[in-house]
């Protein structure tokens, strides 16, 4: 039935599920979130939340994504403008904006990133309406621009991916293939957009806890 998939699903049932589950999960993770906030401040200098630029959301609209800080302060700009990190930045772009070994990650950040605990604050983004619980990755503007130059065949796929809200979790995130290059990653995101439905989202949500615990494929 239309309400269980596609555009109608996005507008009604998916949105309702996003709000209800985000509130429940937010209350569940609140004590852990408070503890993590204290630990982040004790672990390294800088804000509790990541000081990163806006991400690209539905229809190309930019929004501020809330994440616990897992890197040193100002890590995003540091990588792009610090001459000492020029080689690392080149490797970052070559590897489709992923680094297996990143010196900017803090000691606590390694744990947060491995188990996706840094993404807990994104529940606020879901409640506000910037994101969905399940959806494509939310990319940086420069990431999308540069990767489409590198993989020009992905432009149509990017347009499809940007037709819906990005998600906290998604198909490629829970598949253990988060380290794949942009062309494969965006193809997986586009495939999700094409086949999104209530059943599909439930399947992804059910395997997400194990993906968090195991840390498989996390980068």
From TrEMBL:
The chain crosses the membrane at residues 20-40. GO terms for molecular function: phosphotransferase activity, for other substituted phosphate groups. It comes from the Bacteria. Residues 14-213 form the Bacterial sugar transferase domain. The keyword Transmembrane helix applies. InterPro entries: Bact_transf. The keyword Membrane applies. Keywords: Membrane, Transmembrane, Transmembrane helix. Belongs to the bacterial sugar transferase family. This is Bacterial sugar transferase domain-containing protein. It comes from Candidatus Gottesmanbacteria bacterium RIFCSPLOWO2_01_FULL_42_22.
């Amino acid at each position: 039935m239309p309400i269980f998939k596609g555009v109608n699903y996005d507008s009604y049932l998916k949105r309702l599920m996003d709000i209800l589950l985000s509130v429940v999960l937010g209350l569940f993770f609140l004590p852990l979130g408070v503890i993590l906030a204290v630990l982040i401040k004790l672990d390294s200098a800088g804000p509790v939340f990541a000081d990163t630029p806006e991400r690209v959301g539905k229809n190309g609209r930019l929004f501020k994504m809330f994440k616990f800080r897992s890197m040193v302060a100002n890590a995003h700009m540091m990588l792009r403008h610090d001459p000492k990190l020029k080689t690392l930045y080149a490797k970052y772009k070559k590897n489709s904006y992923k680094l297996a070994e990143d010196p900017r990650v803090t000691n606590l950040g390694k744990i947060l990133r491995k188990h996706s605990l840094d993404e807990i604050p994104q529940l606020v983004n879901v409640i506000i309406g910037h994101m969905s619980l399940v959806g494509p990755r939310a990319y940086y503007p420069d990431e999308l621009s540069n990767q489409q130059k590198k993989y020009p065949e992905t432009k149509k796929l990017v347009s499809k991916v940007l037709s819906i809200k990005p998600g906290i979790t998604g198909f490629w995130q829970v598949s253990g293939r988060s380290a794949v290059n942009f062309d494969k990653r965006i193809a997986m995101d586009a495939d999700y957009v094409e086949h999104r439905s209530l059943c599909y989202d439930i399947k992804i949500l059910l395997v997400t806890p194990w993906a968090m615990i195991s840390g498989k494929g996390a980068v």
